[in-house]
Amino acid sequence: MIRAVLFDLDDTLFDHRGCARAALAAVQAGHEGLRAMPFDRLERSHAEFLEELHGDVMLGRVPLEVARIERFRRLLGAAGVPASDEVAADTASTYRETYRTARRAVAGAPALLAAVKRRALVGIVSNNLLDEQQDKLRTCGLDAFVDALVVSEEAKVSKPHPAIFQLALDRLHTQPAEAVMVGDSWSVDIAGARAAGIRAIWFNPAGAPAPEPGTAIPELRTLEPVEPAIRMIFDTHRH
Questions:
Q1: Residue 239 pLDDT > 50, yes or no?
Q2: pLDDT exceeds cutoff 50 at 231
Q3: Domain boundaries along the sequence of the chain
Q4: Residue-wise pLDDT tens digits, 112-122
């Protein structure tokens, strides 16, 4: 019997990529040097710099605001744009404000959480900051469905480490065999859940090939309509 369903947040329930694309478009429009860069290249470079700095922020080695400014200093530098402290800070501010304005849930996420909540406890397991993820949940109207929110900042360990999943299970008073994890990252969500003994479901809206062909991991391409997703989540025969 499934007693708890764990979800990743960014790009599983919260449309981080969509918000980031809107914010990057605003940043690109404000810099001639960035306008000369193809958007897909800009997006890849931004994601790389974000990932490079994210771990240091999670471990408390670099303050969040410092990392944000440094991210855009690197992005502007990659495009050959002179990046003073003021320019990098202004660019980071433009990105941040546009991102916040664009915040939205992944299509179908509110209805899916509401349906899951009627049958099981709901946990969020995220590699991010507590305040940031709480704010996203509130803004998208998802917070009322969540019984436990576990983030790497608080747990002092990140997915795919099994300990962060175990912390979520402990807070939900649930055993691994009684839980399911739904997430979009194979290397982080799927591998981490499996290492913790939790059945995993891969949210794969882009239809990317599985990194481990032949692995029996159920796959969701969309969160709507709700009924197929609910059947997959609570199908204990796959465990």
A1: no
A2: yes
A3: 4-15+105-238, 16-102
A4: 999 999 999 99
Amino acid present at 165: F
pTM metric for this prediction: 0.92
Lookup result for tokens 């980031």: 20
What are 174-223's pLDDT values in tens digits? Answer: 999 999 999 999 999 999 999 999 999 999 999 999 998 878 899 999 99
For 28-92, the DSSP string reads HHT-HHHHTS-HHHHHHHHHHHHHHHHHHHHTTSS-HHHHHHHHHHHHHHHTT----HHHHHHHH
Q: Give the torsion through C-alpha atoms of 20, 21, 26, 27, to 10 deg.
A: 70
CATH 3.40.50.1000 fits 4-15+105-238, yes or no: yes
The mean per-residue pLDDT over the stretch 1-7 comes to: 97
Give residue for tokens 């989540």: 233
Chain centroid to CA 85: 29
Supply the mean pLDDT for the chain.
94
Exposure of 142 by Cβ count < 10 A (0-12 exposed, 13-18 middle, 19+ buried)? buried
pLDDT (tens digit, 9 = 90+) per residue, 34-63?
A: 998 999 999 999 999 998 998 888 877 889
Cis, bond preceding 228 (omega within 30 deg of 0): no
